[in-house]
Design a protein that fits this description.
Length: 503
């Protein structure tokens, strides 16, 4: 088809004009019949959002994707381009991609009137049939729809109502294309009003001049429910003209969340070779996001983006890589203590409520990590709280006893973030009963790298359930007996009071 260069040749080929909505519908039908996946790389939406989008396309609807940040709304919209025909013919030189057999613009009509069937045409790839605009309060009608060019009107001695003096905005230039407006509520109400006629009546109104201009556009809007109260709202008549409103959501399972992180996290090849990431660590990263969404310190309306886990994974691996470089080690394994390097990713991706602001971002991040550890810990080991309750009835053996006794004897373990792997493993191996707990309860087939990760994980888990004391060091964590730690804390307070009394 790309060999066709004139309207005469196009007519002979049997080409029939088709609206973009019909084009999307036809190609989707073909895709569904062939059993092809409509949207690649969109994880967790197979039974919820994607069927809704497909139904909207089949109904030839304009679409509003409503959901919190980081829910792949824009990605969904961009992938709709794959449902367009690979190439379409346009009148050569047309600003608005005029169909050769159904021209809209005065330019195309005049050209066809002069040249007839010999009017030149060109072919436009589907990748060029996509427009996108982030709605901000400073967006104007001229940006979206267009404006009168007074210089053009003066030089060509034309009336302002003449189409030829218009400078088209981004929407007319997206004729026969998909056009996305991100964060629609951020668009001023008067600008939203300017879209009414485009969606329903198919005409343009610029500076009071009305032009019959039935643009052929597939509109996709995105919005955050938070915007309805914080920054703006979608005006009711505009919302009424958007036929399908589709609700998006965060990953519902840890497996979906892991798949998204694995797909999106950018890890350099040398980093992947240098740093081993146990499956336990991958699970814990995702549990952080789930814990953050349930945290009383985090604003639920704002949401917790999937970008948190992506940034967290990248930071986590970089923390381990930095340690390996410092210690001149060819390879290392991610540790639980490396999650201290994840805090910038957490604090930068959450919006806190008043209580969270009072606690401070680092305390909130630590709280979220501890909660994630608690939630994941009971998936591998008995719940320490239940074990303690059953101890009196001897229904279940307390598997944590031997480790607790080690610390009750006054032993203290410092796990430093930048400690070499040998020092790290030796420190964990010195804890009596810890390795045996892992091997006996999980499996003797566990690999060496995961073994030490699980050993440290048990310490953090026991601390999270108040079986051990964990305190923050400048570069790492200190584990000790919880009872002695409480007494020591009390003694320090008394000493300070006495000092104040005698000073």
């Amino acid at each position: 088809m790309q060999s066709i260069t004139t309207i005469a040749q196009l007519k002979k080929s049997g080409y029939q004009p088709k609206s973009i909505k019909q084009e999307l519908r036809d190609n989707l039908i073909t895709s569904l019949k062939a059993g092809k996946k409509t949207f690649d790389g969109i994880i967790g939406y197979d039974t919820s959002v994607i069927p809704d989008v497909e139904r909207a396309i089949l109904s030839k609807h304009n679409i509003l994707l409503l959901g919190l940040r980081g829910q792949a709304k824009t990605r969904l919209a961009r992938q709709m381009v794959n449902l367009l025909d690979e190439y379409i013919p346009v009148v050569k030189g047309s600003e608005i991609l005029d169909d050769p057999l159904q021209p809209l613009s005065r330019f195309a009509k005049d050209l066809i009137e002069i040249n007839g069937d010999e009017t030149p045409i060109e072919w436009v790839h589907r990748s060029e049939r996509f427009g996108e605009k982030l709605a901000t309060p400073d967006v104007t009608v001229a940006d979206l729809i267009g404006d009168v060019d007074p210089i053009k009107a003066a030089t060509q001695k034309m009336n302002y109502s003449d189409e030829r003096v218009l400078h088209f905005g981004i929407i007319p230039r997206c004729n026969r294309s998909i056009f996305v407006i991100n964060e629609l509520p951020d668009l001023q109400a008067r600008i939203q009003v300017a879209l009414f006629n485009l969606l329903e009546e198919g005409d343009l109104q610029i500076r009071g001049f009305k032009l019959r201009f039935p643009l052929d556009i597939q509109f996709v809007f995105t919005a955050n429910p938070e915007d309805y109260t914080n920054r703006g709202s979608i005006v009711t008549p505009l919302k009424d003209r958007i036929e399908s409103q589709i609700l998006t959501h965060y990953p519902k399972t840890i497996e979906d969340s892991k798949a998204i992180t694995a797909q999106e996290a950018v890890l350099p090849e040398e980093q992947e070779k240098r740093v081993i990431i146990p499956e336990l660590i991958k699970d814990l990263v995702e549990h952080i996001a789930f814990a953050a969404r349930d945290s009383e310190f985090v604003d639920e309306k704002s949401g917790v983006s999937a970008r948190l886990t992506i940034a967290a994974m990248e930071n986590l691996v970089s923390t381990a890589e930095r340690r390996a470089l410092i210690n001149h080690e060819k390879q290392t394994v991610v540790r639980i203590s490396d999650f201290a390097g994840v805090f910038p990713a957490i604090t930068g991706k959450i919006e806190m409520v008043y209580e969270g602001e009072q606690e401070g971002p680092m305390r909130v991040a630590q709280n979220i990590l501890d909660k994630a550890i608690r939630n994941l810990f009971v998936q591998y080991f008995p719940n320490p709280t239940k074990v303690k309750k059953k101890k009196a009835q001897q229904e279940e053996k307390n598997i944590y006893n031997e480790v607790q006794k080690y610390f009750e004897q006054g032993n203290v373990v410092d796990l430093l973030t930048d400690a070499p792997d040998l020092d790290y493993r030796n420190a964990l191996s010195d804890i009596k009963g810890l390795k045996e707990l892992i091997l006996n309860y999980l499996s003797s087939n566990i690999d060496t790298s995961s073994l030490y990760t699980f050993m440290e994980f048990v310490l953090h888990g026991m601390a999270a359930y108040s079986l051990l004391s964990k305190s923050q060091l400048e570069q790492g964590n200190k584990f000790s007996d919880i009872t002695s730690a409480m007494f020591n804390y009390g003694e320090e307070e008394v000493d300070d009071d006495l000092k104040d009394l005698f000073n």
